[in-house]
Structure prediction request, 480 residues.
Amino acid sequence: MIGATYGSFLMKSRRVRSSASVFSWEGAESCDSSECWEGAIIFFSSYITILWTFFDKKVPFPQVGIFNDQIKETNIRGKRHMDLAEKILKGWSITKPQRKFLLTLFTTILALRGKVNFRNLSRYSGLSARTYARQFDQPFDFIRLNRTLIDQVVPPGHPRLIAFDPCFLPKAGKHTPELAYFWNGCHGRAEKGLEVSCFSLIDLEHNTGYALSVQQTPAPVNTDDEETLIDTYLDHLHTVIPYLHPEETHLAVDGQFAKKKWLDGVEAVGLHTIGKLRCDANMRFFYTGPLRAHGSGRQKTYDGKVDWQDLSGFDYVTQQDGLELYTQVLNHVSFKRTLRVVVVLDQRDPKKRRYALLFSTDQELDPVTLFFSYKARFQIEFIFRDAKQFTGFADAQTRDAQRLHFHFHAALTTLNIAKIEQRQIQAADQPMVYSMASVKACYFNELFLQRIFSTFGWDPNRLKKSSHYPALREFGRVAA
Prediction:
C-alpha cells in the first residue's frame, strides 16, 4: 500500500475531495494557495488512510507546509539506531556541529535511494549540498571511530584477524585526483579508475568483517608499478598500527602479496602474514637426519626441493569439507625465510586433482587455524560488495582529494554501524545474519513516516508508541 504511485493518487483525487471531512479545514484558510492545500491532500491521502488504519486516535491537522526546519526535525529519527555512534562521539572533543553532521550523514546514507552524492544527500535531509561539501572538507579520525565501534561487538579475548586488500573503483573523467590504470580483479585486467586500500578486522567467532581504515592509492609515477604500490600499502599499514591491539598479530592477504618486500615490511612492525603462494613455489625441506660426526664443512641444512605432486614429506593434518590438509615447515628460496606451509588438497573430482598452498610467517601457527584464517579473509570482499551496493562507496562525485578521503571513510563507517546494530540485536551464540537491503528499507520507512508526521504537525511520540509502528517500519523487509 505504501508503495502506491503518484498516478494512483491523482486517480483517487475525486473520492478524496468528497471525503475531506476528516481534515481540519479551518487551518486551510491560512494557506497561501488553495491549490497547495488540495495538492497536499491528494498526494498524502493514501498514506493518511493507512496511518488511520493503524492508529486509533485522530488528531487535527494544522497548516500544511514543507519547510526546511520540519525536514531537519526528521533527522532525529536515527537516534534510536545511532545511539552507539552518538554515545561515542559525545565523549570526543569534537565540535557539536560536526557531531550532529556525522550522525545526520550516517543516517541519511542508510535512508536515501540512489547514489550517495552531495545533491542526493541534500534531498533526504535538511542540509544543502554545499553544507555537505563544506563538512567533507573537515578532517575527522574515522579510524578511531571504527576502532571504538568494533570494540563494542568484538570484546577482548575473542579471536580476530586483520585483513587487507585493495579495491578498484571505476571512475570516468580526467581531473579526479590519482586517476590512473589499476588492476580490476572483476574483469581480470588493468582499467582506468581509482584504487583504495582497506584494512579490516575479522571477527572469527561470527565470521564477520568490519572496516578499520581506507586510503586512496596514489597514481603510479613510473613503470615499476608493483614495487611502488607495495610501498604505498606499507605506508598505509604504518598508519593503522597505532590502532591495533596487542593480541591482533596476524594479517591475512591474498596471493598478490606473496612478495619478499611485503613480508619484510609486515614483519618489521611486529605482525605475521597469512597468505597464498604460487602453485609452483620454489621451496626446500629442512634436513632432520643425524648430524655428521666427522669431516670439514658446514652441517647439512636442506634436504632437497619440494615436489608438490609428492606429499610424502608432509604431515597429514585433517580433512575439512572434503579437503585434505597437509603441513610442513619449509624454506622459501626467493623469500629467504622459513614459512609454515599448509597444502590444501582437493580430490573431490578424481579426474582433476587440485591443490592450493597457504602459508604463514608464524611457524608455530596451528595448520587448521591457518586454513580457517585465510578462508575468513574473504570477508573483506563482502565489505567492498556491501559498501558499493548500499552505502555509495563508489558514488563520490567530487574532484577534491580530502572530500574523496572523507567519502570513502563515511561509506565504510556507515556500513560498520549498520552491521553492528544488527549484531547487537542477535544472540551472542548465533552466527551473524543480516541483510543490508532490509536495513536500508527500515531506515527509509522510518524517514518517510517521520516526514509525514512532521509535515502535518502530528506528535511523533504517538507514532513510535503505537504497537503497529514496528510493522510499518519493517515494511518491505526481506529475510537475510
